[in-house]
Amino acid sequence: MKVAFLGTGLMGLPMAQRLLAANIELVAYNRTPEKLAPLQAAGAEIATEPRYAIRAADCIILMLTNAAAIYSVLLSDTSWRALSGRTVIQMGTITPTESLEIRDAVVSAGGEYIEAPVLGSIPEAQAGKLILMVGAREDQFQRHLSLLQNFGPEPRLVGPVGAGASVKLALNQLIAALTTSFSLSLAFIQRQYIDVEVFMEILRESTLYAPTFDKKLSRMLDGNFANPNFPTKHLLKDTDLFINEAKAAELDVSSIKGVRQILHSAMKMSFANDDYSSVFYAIKAWEEGRWE
């Protein structure tokens, strides 16, 4: 099998490198060509246009920013016409509605489509320990399982196309909600002049504890949000996607709208490309009367 990897950003690059390490023949395309240099150095073929990558491959993996990027890269007229007889595996974060629409476009071109969005960040991508939520038929899942296992040891079939995208949005909503809630508690503890480590010791002993709290604690205390595994702008994008889908499902989204406001504030404070733990500073800015 020859794989075309479209989208080699923060997550796409280490995922593509996993395939090369497994001696899988790879052709890569990225809208920012400079990001392809590490893959080229490792032996990947580089495509200057997405249609060239698609034509050269049996399977196309998408790790693009959003649905608009997928339409631009995969479903432009020249690329769409090259999909016949090929499998598309969509691994980024989009809505189930978007995933179903893209599936229909791929199938109408004579291709096959499954989704396998991932949970985890750069360290998990590098180690092949991502959590994969696959939306596909059982036979499709089994045929592509060995390929997907390069990214995570136990890909899970969660239902048909749309189900994987739904689970991923639900999980990313929790990332946003947990991080902002923890940030608020941490800011409150500091405001009350309580030793943060005392608070953390109690939290770690409780059923309220989530490992992400310790992963983000040092960033928050040090104000070091550079070199992100997941930038604020991407979490805001995913939160917006969740809100839209949840509203369509007639769910009350009042609580996550507050979280979105905090993420938006972090963006206005120039943390768009920094780690999403920067919401801690957005909350502290509100506390100090600087939050708009």
From TrEMBL:
<keyword id="KW-0520">NAD</keyword>
<feature type="domain" description="3-hydroxyisobutyrate dehydrogenase-like NAD-binding">
    <location>
        <begin position="162"/>
        <end position="279"/>
    </location>
</feature>
<dbReference type="Pfam" id="PF14833">
    <property type="entry name" value="NAD_binding_11"/>
</dbReference>
<dbReference type="InterPro" id="IPR051265">
    <property type="entry name" value="HIBADH-related_NP60_sf"/>
</dbReference>
<comment type="similarity">
    <text>Belongs to the HIBADH-related family.</text>
</comment>
<feature type="domain" description="6-phosphogluconate dehydrogenase NADP-binding">
    <location>
        <begin position="2"/>
        <end position="153"/>
    </location>
</feature>
<protein>
    <submittedName>
        <fullName>NAD(P)-dependent oxidoreductase</fullName>
    </submittedName>
</protein>
<keyword id="KW-0560">Oxidoreductase</keyword>
<dbReference type="InterPro" id="IPR036291">
    <property type="entry name" value="NAD(P)-bd_dom_sf"/>
</dbReference>
<dbReference type="InterPro" id="IPR006115">
    <property type="entry name" value="6PGDH_NADP-bd"/>
</dbReference>
<dbReference type="Pfam" id="PF03446">
    <property type="entry name" value="NAD_binding_2"/>
</dbReference>
<dbReference type="InterPro" id="IPR029154">
    <property type="entry name" value="HIBADH-like_NADP-bd"/>
</dbReference>
<dbReference type="InterPro" id="IPR013328">
    <property type="entry name" value="6PGD_dom2"/>
</dbReference>
<dbReference type="InterPro" id="IPR008927">
    <property type="entry name" value="6-PGluconate_DH-like_C_sf"/>
</dbReference>
<dbReference type="InterPro" id="IPR015815">
    <property type="entry name" value="HIBADH-related"/>
</dbReference>
